[in-house]
Amino acid sequence: MSKNLLDIKDLKVNIDDIDILKGINLKINEGETHIIMGPNGSGKSTLAYTLMGHPNYSIEDGEIEFEGENINDLKADERAKKGIFLSFQYPEEIPGVTVEDFLRTAKSSVSGKKMGIITFKKVLKEKMKELDMDDEYASRYLNLGFSGGEKKKNEILLMSVLEPKLAILDETDSGLDVDAIRIVAEGVNKFKDENRSILVITHYDKLLSYLKPDYIHILLDGKIVKTGGIELAKEIDQKGYENIKMEFSN
Amino acid sequence: MTKWKRIKLNEFKFPKVTDYNKEYLSYGQLPQGVELNKINKTNNNLIIENLNNNITGVGDEFTSHVMANYNTGISLYIPKSTNIEDPIKLEFNMDDENPTTIDQNIIIASANSESTIIFDYTSKDENNFHNGVTKVYAKKNSVVNIIKIQRMDDKSYNFDSNIAYIEGRAVVNWISVEIGSDISGSNFTSILEDEASEGNLASIYLGNGTRKMDLEYTMIHKGRRSISNIETRGVLMDQATKVFRGNLDFKKGAKLSKGVEEEFVVLLDPTVKSHSIPALLCEEDDVQGEHAASAGQINDNQLFYLMSRGLDIREAKQLIIQASFRPILDKIPMDDLRDLILEEIDRRLLNG
Predict the structure, then answer these.
(1) Beta carbons of B305 and A106 less than 8 Å apart
(2) CA B274-B280-B283 angle, 5° bins
(3) Domain region containing B73
(4) Which 3 state secondary structure label does DSSP give A109?
(5) Is the dihedral of CA A174, A178, A183, A185 positive or negative?
(6) Model-level ipTM above the cut of 0.90
């Protein structure tokens, strides 16, 4: 049996005193791909931010364990160093910092090792090619003037350079056209191996046909109400969330 | 002293001026004919020639104080078509024994000459005080680069008035780095006197703690097709206050001239005060004046984004600030000096 990587126990989170997550339980083992689906406002992005350690999301109760260690109180950078990565739904623009400089800085922060400029350039060029990104992106300012699709691709580029153990993809498929989704999915599939795990947060199944998820979880009103296989996503694609909502409204 | 109202310096009292006795001047190979002299009151023709030429600078009280009390400085005469390759460097390091630097500097750059002069002001002890006047006469086709670095201690006061008289096709490049002092006021004025005179000012500033600064950059266009460019990048944090005044003044006769000024400031805390006052004065129609200013905040989401990539909070802020300063710092031709400035910026960010 593969080793456990992430273990979320009865996680409760509120923002500005409003309860958003109301007791999440989720175990992710090494090498697994999990999908969390849910309608708008169900708490999907809150879960993503909380796992990465956003200071505005306070944990009221419960535990997040990563590789057996409680990480509730770790800051975002400490979590990144442990191997957690979040692909942002809305990546921030940072003028004056080039993609290449940023990636190199991030890589050496996360790995604790300095990488030579020339070696890094080579690695970066390869990874960019895989994602069908033009070389000139490397010298552009981070996310500045990027289209929605370019920003998402850049997130996946970050992921493949940083090589985390757990990659959380928050609505990475939104705002992407069909070709871009395919390229991003290929990037994710290339990244995945028997040790690395992926948690995809989405409200569509667009990415799912490319990824081979092990589990699908339905998040409703701050709780995971149903877990199953790919058939669950198909059901939602056809019938929407209404049936499940009805089922759990009592 | 209405000029100083904004940073509330209404009851300023000048300290007692004592001698500045430390060595401060260093230079490499000086070509033949170059006259470089330390200034003292009794023996300096260039200074005496220019004494009656007082300037307003940061304020008449301050420049008059320099005229009456100067205790150090240089006079530099560069003959025609002479290129001084190694920068001339003045380092004033104030302390308890030498608490006041009142420098008077006169630079006369003859036609077709080229030179770089660096001024570095530091201080170690409380109540150190700098008040200076630097005058540059850039004759036809000359290039003069003046780099002024003010990284004095938080209890010090700094006042600096600079003026350049720029003849036809001559270029004066000012670089100003303002990262120290409790209160700092600086003025850089370029008078573009003739056809295609050019004045450039690139500056960075960092305000932390309760420090206050008043920065005034003035470009006076008199000559036809004269060119000016002001490029300023700043960072403010804690309770720091800054007033930026950028003046583009197109006089009658400055046809086809162009002046550009831009200031970008990053505000790290909501408690800072940042005033930007760009002014555009035109006596001539056929001129082009542009100004751009922006103040940006590093918000929590930006920091979180950078931190989620493994940078700690200090590294994340540093990255954003260094990115903002880079284009200006890259103009400083010496690596060691750039590193010193970056170090001082880091130190101040760390304490903040």
Answers:
(1) no
(2) 160
(3) 13-299
(4) helix
(5) positive
(6) yes
> Considering all CA atoms of chain A, what is the largest pairwise distance in Å, rounded to the nearest integer?
61
Read off the DSSP letter of residue A110.
Answer: H
Nearest chain A alpha carbon to B314: A77
Dihedral of the alpha carbons of A135, A138, A142, A143, in degrees to the nearest 10: 10
- Cα of first residue to Cα of last residue in chain A, in angstroms, is 37
What number is the average pLDDT over the span B321-329?
86
Torsion on CA atoms B218, B221, B225, B229, rounded to nearest 10: 0
Q: Distance between CA A204 and CA A233 in Å, rounded?
A: 8
Q: Token digits for B212? A: 């206050």
Concatenated DSSP letters of A142-192? ETTT--HHHHHHHHHHHHHHH--SEEEEESTTTT--HHHHHHHHHHHHHH-
Q: How far is CA B339 from CA B129, B266, B343, in A?
A: 25, 21, 6
How many other C-beta atoms are found inside a 10 Å radius of the C-beta of residue B214? 24
Are the Cβ atoms of B311 and A105 closer than 8 angstroms?
yes
Domain ranges of chain A: 4-248
- Among B305, B306, B313, B317, CA closest to A170: B305
Query: Within a domain: residue B312?
Result: no
Which tens digits make up the pLDDT trace of A170-184?
988 887 888 888 888
DSSP-based three-state secondary structure for A201: strand
From residue A230, alpha-carbon distances to A43, A201, B297 in Å are: 21, 14, 44
Instruction: Kindly state whether residue B341 falls inside one of the protein's structural domains.
Output: no
User: Are A96 and B326 an interchain contact pair (Cβ–Cβ within 8 Å)?
Assistant: yes
Thinking of the domain A4-248, which architecture would CATH place it in?
A: 3-Layer(aba) Sandwich (3.40)
Residue type, A73: D
Write out the two tokens for A151.
């920003």
Strand B100-101 relative to strand B129-138, pairing: parallel
C-alpha B159 chain-centroid distance? 10
Contact B157, B126 (CB under 8 A): no
Q: How far apart are CA A88 and CA A101, in angstroms?
A: 19
Tokens of A195: 């040790």
| pLDDT given for residue B317 in this prediction | 86
Q: Do B310 and A162 touch (CB under 8 A)?
A: yes
CB–CB of A94 and B326 under 8 A? no
Higher pLDDT, B50 or A45: A45
How many structural domains comprise chain B?
1
**Preferred mutation among B262, B299, B307 to probe A, highest tally of A CBs within 10 A:** B307
Beta bridge partner(s), residue B126: none
Distance CA A32, CA A212 (A): 9
Amino acid occupying residue A205 = D
Q: Do A34 and A6 touch, CB atoms closer than 8 A?
A: no
Q: How far apart are the first and last CA of chain B?
A: 31
Nearest to B211 by CA among B235, B237, B183: B183
Q: 3-state SS of B76-106?
A: EEECCCCECCCCEEEEEEECCCCCEECEEEE
Chain B interface, Cβ < 8 Å to A: 300-302, 304-313, 315-316, 319-320, 323-324, 326
d(CA A117, CA A105): 11
**Tally of CB atoms within 10 A around B87:** 18
Query: Per residue in A73-109, pLDDT tens?
Result: 999 999 999 999 999 999 998 877 889 989 999 999 9
